[in-house]
Design brief:
Elements: H1 2-22, H2 26-45, H3 48-53, H4 62-75, E1 77-90, E2 94-107, E3 115-126, E4 129-142
Antiparallel strand pairs: 1-2, 2-3, 3-4
């Protein structure tokens, strides 16, 4: 009988601990997709500060992404369109968003070809926001 009492006393703590295991809510998933949308909208607007605001500052790719974005903006005019953004999976500290987007060059040197890119963005929490940590490109198809 005493072990049943101990079990009942521990039950709220176990429930609270298990709730923390999953930690990522539907609102978090929606926020992660919104970050992907904001990132591409900032690219469309050629707003380097807005692009940087969607990137996780601790990502090992942060500085390189900023540099490449600046170079891209200086050389090309590109129209972007997000075709798909779907949560593929979640872990305790990351959300993986499968995406497909089109990048249509409207001006600039011939090296850049209009394309459809698909892959997965990995987002991690920074403060209260979901930020892009890394991107795994799966396929690039010329248009």
């Amino acid at each position: 009988m005493q072990s049943l009492r101990h079990f009942r006393a521990l039950l709220p703590a176990v429930a609270l601990l298990c709730a923390g295991c999953h930690g990522i809510t539907e609102a978090d998933k929606a926020a992660a997709i919104a970050t992907v949308q904001q990132n591409l909208a900032a690219m469309e607007e050629r707003n380097a500060d807005a692009v940087s605001a969607t990137l996780h500052s601790q990502s090992p790719h942060f500085e390189k992404t900023k540099m490449l974005t600046d170079q891209l903006f200086r050389r090309y005019e590109i129209h972007y369109e997000l075709k798909e953004a779907v949560v593929e999976s979640v872990t305790r500290d990351a959300i993986r968003v499968r995406f497909a987007q089109e990048a249509m060059k409207t001006s600039g040197p011939p090296e850049f070809k209009s394309n459809r890119t698909s892959g997965v963005h990995v987002l991690r929490r920074e403060g209260g926001a979901w930020k892009l940590w890394s991107t795994e490109v799966r396929e690039v198809t010329p248009l």
